[in-house]
Design a protein that fits this description.
heterotrimer; A mainly alpha (482); B mainly alpha (108); C mainly alpha (245); A: mainly alpha; B: 108 residues; mainly alpha; 2 domains; 0% strand; elongated
C-alpha cells in the first residue's frame, strides 16, 4: 500500500483508549483507504470526461486538431464524456462518500469489507470497459445506456452487490432513521431497477415510441433516482456536521423525500415532448415535473433555513461554500426545469444548447460541486494532513464555479437563439454559424473548469506528499471548520 | 454551538405561524393555477374521443396522491412521526462522539 | 409503516418505481401492441431499393468488394438485393449509433416551431415500429438538421463526399469527418460507408412525401402575412398548430 493512511480518522478508534459504549465497540468503522481509492478513481474519470467534452467543443468551433482519427472521433468521445461523468465520476465519488457516511450514520461497518474491495475493482472494470467499448464503436443507442451489451449484466450485478453491501447495515441500524438514510435506502433500491429497465427493456423488447417512453424514463430516473437522492442524502449528512448544528427541520426533509419518491419517477417522458408518444402521457409528465419543482423548493428552503445565522461560513468554510453554491445552482436549475417542461417553452428550446446548458448546470453545477466539496472536506481527514495550500483550494473553487456559471449561462442563452433561428425557418447554417461565438466562450469556460481540476489534483498530490513525510507531533487533524 | 435548540411554546407557535404563512404562499397560487389549467384542460378535451385518455392519467395521479396523503394522515394519527426532529440531533451527537475518539480529535 | 425501513424500501423504493413504470412504460407498450415489430427485411421498399442499386452503379468496385456480385437470374437477384439491402440497413444503424450521429441529429418532426415546413409531415408512431428503432433514435439534440425525412433528398455521391469531409460541401460545417467509412478516397466507400449511406437514404423512404426537398425559394414567412392575424402576433407554435388538421 503506497498511500499512508495509517493515521487516518477512524482506523485508530480502538487505540484511543476511551471507554467504549456498547454501540461503538466496532472500532474499524470506516475503511478510509477505500474511500480514498474511490475518490481518486472518480477524479481520474472526471479528468477523462473533461478531455472528451473538450474534444467535442473544439470540433464545434472547427479547431479540432485530431480530426479524421477513428478512435478519437468527437461523437464517440461525447458518449465517453457523458458516461464517464455518470458512471465514472459520480458513481465512484458517491460510493466513496457513502463508504464514509453510512458506517458513521449506522455505527455499523459495511456488510462485508472484502466485498467492498471486490465491488471497487469490478466497478472500475465496468467503467473502463464501457469507455473502451464506446471508443471502439460498440455503443448502444440510448443516452447513458450506451454501455456496450456485454457490460450491462456485469454493471447490474455490481449495483446489486452495492445495494446488499450497504442496505444490510442500514436495516440493522437502531432507532428512527435520519433522513440521509431514507434517501440512501431508497436510492439503493431504485438504482439497480433503473439500470435494468434502461439497459435491457428498450434494447431487447420494446421498439419505437414505447422505447422512447422508457428511454425518457431511464435518463430521468438515473438523475432523479440515483444521483439526486444520493446527493441530497449526503448533503443532509455533511451540511449539519460542517455547520455544527442540526438541519432546520427534519419533518420538512421527509416531505422532500416522499415528494421526490412519488413524483420524480413519473417525469421521464418530459424529455420527449412533442414526439409521437401519446399526448396524455406527455401531459402527465409535465404535471409531475412541476410537482417535483415544488417539492424541491421545500428542500432548498430547509437548507437555507439551516444556514440562517451561520452565513459567514460561506466565506470561511470552503466545503460549505461548495455545498451552498451547488444549492444555488440547484435552485436555478429547478426553476429552469419548471419553465422548460411546459409545452410552450419546449417548442422553442428543445434540441437546442439550452438543454446542454441545463445538463451541465445539474451535473457539474450541483452534484459535482457537492462531491468536490465533500472531497475538499474528507481528503485531509483521509490523509491525516491539512491541505497543502488553501489558496489552491480557493482557485479550484473559483475556477470551477465561475467556469460553470459562464458555460451554463452561455449555452442557455445560445439555446434561445437557436430556437428562434430554427423556428423562423432560416437556413440551417445560420444557426450553426450564429452559435460560433457562444461555442467559443464555452470552450474557454470549459478550459477554466479543467484548469480548476488540475489545480485540485496538484494540491492533492502535494498534500499526499506531505502526509507521507514524517509529520511533527503537533500536527493536528483539520477540524470540521477546515 | 453544542447547546440543543430550545423549543419553548412561544418559539413553537412562531414556527407554526411561519409554516402556515409559507404554506399559504405556496399553496394558494399553485392550487389556483393548477385548478384553472385543469378546468381549461377538461373543457378542451371533453368533446374529444381521446379526451378520456387525456383526463384519466391526471385523475389517476390526483387520486393516488390523495390516497397517499390519507395514508400519511392515518399514520400520523397512529403515533408515527411523533418525535420527528429527534434523529437530526442524535446523529450529530454520534458524529461528535466518533470524532472525539480520534487520537488527534479535530478541533471542533 | 411510513417511518419504518420496510416502508422506505417497499413503498418508496419498489411501489413508487412500479407505479411509474406502469403508467409511463407499460401503458404505451399496451397501446402499441397492435403495431408488431417489423424486421429490416420488411422495411425494404422500392425507394430504398432504388438507392441501394444506385450505390452499385456509382461505386461498382466498392459495392462488389463488400457484397460480392448479384446472381444473374432475376428472381434470385431480387431476393439477393433485398437481403443485402436489409443487412446494409442493420449495419448502417449500428454505425449511426456507434458514431453518435444521434447525439447531433434527431429523427422526429414536431408539430411546432415550423418544423413541418422545414422537414415535412409530423412523425407518427407507426413509422417507428421496427427493428431499426429499437432503441428508438428520436435524439435529444440538433447540432445538425433532423434526418427522419432525409432519404432521397440528396444523392448518394453527395453523402459520400459529405461523410468523407463535410466542410467540402458545407463550408464551416462542424460535423466530424469520417474517413474510416472509406478506403482512402470519397469514391471508395467501404462496408460501413455503403451501409450508412443506405441507412440515411432509407430514412423517410416509406413516407408519401418522399423525397422531400427543403424549399429554398422565398421565405414562407412572407405567405403568412396574408393571414387574417398579422404574423407578428402569432407564435410559431400557433401557426404550426393551425397548419395541422
Amino acid at each position: 500500500m503506497t498511500l499512508s493512511l495509517g493515521r487516518a480518522a477512524d482506523s485508530s478508534l480502538e487505540e484511543a483508549g476511551a471507554p467504549q459504549p456498547a454501540h461503538l465497540v466496532d472500532a474499524q468503522l470506516v475503511e478510509t483507504r477505500l474511500v480514498a481509492f474511490y475518490f481518486l478513481a472518480a477524479l481520474a474519470y472526471l479528468f477523462i470526461s473533461m478531455l472528451g467534452g473538450f474534444l467535442m467543443a473544439l470540433q464545434l468551433v472547427h479547431i479540432n486538431p485530431l480530426r479524421g482519427i477513428e478512435l478519437l472521433s468527437p461523437g464517440r468521445w461525447r458518449m465517453v464524456h457523458t458516461n464517464a461523468i455518470a458512471y465514472g465520476f459520480l458513481a465512484n465519488a458517491f460510493l466513496g462518500a457513502l463508504h464514509w457516511a453510512i458506517p458513521r450514520l449506522t455505527l455499523k461497518p459495511v456488510f462485508n469489507r472484502t466485498l467492498s474491495y471486490l465491488i471497487f475493482v469490478a466497478w472500475q472494470i465496468v467503467v473502463v470497459s464501457t469507455a473502451v467499448g464506446i471508443v471502439l464503436g460498440q455503443a448502444q443507442g440510448l443516452e447513458w445506456g450506451e454501455t456496450p451489451v456485454w457490460i450491462d449484466p456485469v454493471a447490474l450485478l455490481g449495483l446489486v452487490l452495492v445495494t446488499i453491501n450497504f442496505t444490510i447495515p442500514m436495516t440493522q441500524a437502531r432507532g428512527p432513521l435520519y433522513v440521509s438514510l431514507w434517501y440512501f435506502m431508497a436510492a439503493f433500491v431504485w438504482t439497480p431497477l433503473t439500470y435494468a429497465m434502461g439497459n435491457f427493456v428498450p434494447e431487447y423488447w420494446v421498439n419505437g415510441t414505447s422505447a422512447g417512453a422508457i428511454g425518457g424514463l431511464f435518463i430521468h430516473d438515473l438523475v432523479g433516482l440515483f444521483v439526486t437522492p444520493l446527493g441530497w442524502g449526503l448533503m443532509y449528512y455533511f451540511v449539519p456536521i460542517l455547520l455544527r448544528k442540526p438541519v432546520w427541520s427534519h419533518g420538512l426533509s421527509l416531505v422532500g423525500f416522499w415528494g421526490l419518491a412519488f413524483f420524480y419517477p413519473l417525469t421521464g417522458i418530459h424529455h420527449f415532448l412533442y414526439t409521437p408518444i401519446p399526448m396524455f402521457l406527455q401531459y402527465g409528465a409535465v404535471i409531475s415535473t412541476i410537482a417535483v419543482e415544488m417539492v424541491v423548493t421545500t428542500v432548498i428552503v430547509n437548507f437555507f433555513g439551516t444556514l440562517r445565522g451561520s452565513g459567514r461560513e460561506i466565506v470561511t468554510n470552503l466545503p460549505i461554500r461548495w455545498f451552498y453554491t451547488g444549492m444555488v445552482f440547484y435552485a436555478i436549475t429547478c426553476f429552469q426545469c419548471a419553465l422548460q417542461t411546459t409545452m410552450t417553452f419546449q417548442a422553442l428550446i428543445h434540441f437546442s444548447d439550452w438543454v446542454v446548458g441545463h445538463a451541465h448546470l445539474v451535473m457539474f453545477g450541483v452534484f459535482s460541486m457537492w462531491l468536490l466539496g465533500i472531497m475538499t472536506y474528507l481528503f485531509p481527514r483521509l490523509l491525516g494532513r491539512d491541505w497543502y495550500s488553501r489558496t489552491l483550494c480557493e482557485w479550484h473553487y473559483w475556477l470551477s464555479a465561475v467556469g460553470l456559471a459562464v458555460m451554463a449561462g452561455d449555452l442557455i442563452l445560445v439555446g434561445v437563439f437557436q430556437g428562434f433561428w430554427w423556428g423562423s425557418l432560416q437556413m440551417w447554417d445560420v444557426s450553426v454559424d450564429g452559435s460560433q461565438p457562444f461555442w467559443i466562450v464555452r470552450v474557454i469556460a470549459g478550459v477554466a473548469m479543467f484548469a480548476g481540476l488540475l489545480v485540485f489534483l496538484y494540491n492533492l498530490y502535494m498534500t499526499w506528499r506531505l502526509s507521507t513525510a514524517p509529520a511533527p507531533e503537533t500536527a493536528r487533524l483539520p477540524a470540521a471548520t477546515a | 454551538m453544542n447547546t440543543p435548540t430550545v423549543t419553548t411554546p412561544a418559539v413553537r407557535r412562531r414556527q407554526l405561524m411561519v409554516t402556515a404563512i409559507m404554506a399559504l404562499i405556496v399553496l394558494v397560487p399553485s392550487l389556483l393555477g393548477f385548478g384553472n389549467k385543469f378546468r381549461e384542460f377538461i373543457l378542451l378535451f371533453r368533446g374529444d374521443v381521446d379526451g378520456v385518455f387525456a383526463i384519466s392519467p391526471i385523475m389517476n395521479y390526483l387520486l393516488a396522491a390523495l390516497g397517499f396523503f390519507c395514508l400519511f394522515g392515518w399514520a400520523m394519527l397512529h403515533g408515527m412521526f411523533h418525535d420527528i426532529e429527534e434523529p437530526k440531533r442524535h446523529f450529530l451527537e454520534t458524529e461528535r462522539e466518533l470524532d472525539r475518539r480520534l487520537p488527534n480529535p479535530p478541533i471542533a | 409503516m411510513f417511518e419504518s425501513k420496510s416502508g422506505i424500501l417497499g413503498i418508496a423504493g419498489l411501489a413508487f418505481f412500479g407505479i411509474a413504470f406502469l403508467s409511463n412504460a407499460v401503458i404505451p407498450m399496451l397501446m402499441y401492441r397492435n403495431l408488431p415489430e417489423q424486421k429490416a427485411e420488411q422495411l425494404i421498399n422500392a425507394n430504398v431499393r432504388y438507392q441501394f442499386e444506385d450505390l452499385a452503379r456509382r461505386f461498382p468496385a466498392a459495392f462488389e468488394k463488400t457484397y460480392g456480385s448479384p446472381p444473374a437470374e432475376t428472381k434470385e437477384r431480387e431476393a439477393w438485393l433485398n437481403q443485402k439491402c436489409a443487412d446494409a440497413l442493420r449495419l448502417g444503424r449500428k454505425v449511426y449509433i456507434a458514431e453518435a450521429c444521434w447525439h447531433c441529429h434527431s429523427q422526429f418532426v414536431r408539430p411546432v416551431s415550423n418544423e413541418e415546413r422545414r422537414w415535412g409531415a409530423v412523425s407518427a408512431s407507426p413509422e417507428y415500429a421496427n427493428e431499426l428503432q429499437r432503441p428508438v433514435m428520436f435524439g435529444t439534440r440538433r447540432v445538425g438538421p433532423d434526418l427522419c425525412r432525409e432519404g432521397g433528398r440528396r444523392s448518394s455521391d453527395w453523402h459520400a463526399v459529405h461523410f468523407f469531409r463535410p466542410a467540402d460541401l458545407s463550408a464551416k460545417s462542424p460535423m466530424p469527418e469520417y474517413p474510416w467509412f472509406f478506403d482512402g478516397a470519397a469514391d471508395k466507400p467501404n462496408a460501413r460507408g455503403l451501409a450508412i449511406i443506405t441507412y440515411i437514404q432509407w430514412l423517410g423512404s416509406w413516407h408519401e412525401t418522399y423525397p422531400l426537398y427543403e424549399q429554398y425559394e422565398a421565405s414562407p414567412l412572407q405567405d403568412m402575412q396574408v393571414d387574417a392575424v398579422p404574423a407578428a402576433q402569432q407564435s410559431p407554435a400557433t401557426q404550426a398548430r393551425k397548419a395541422t388538421p
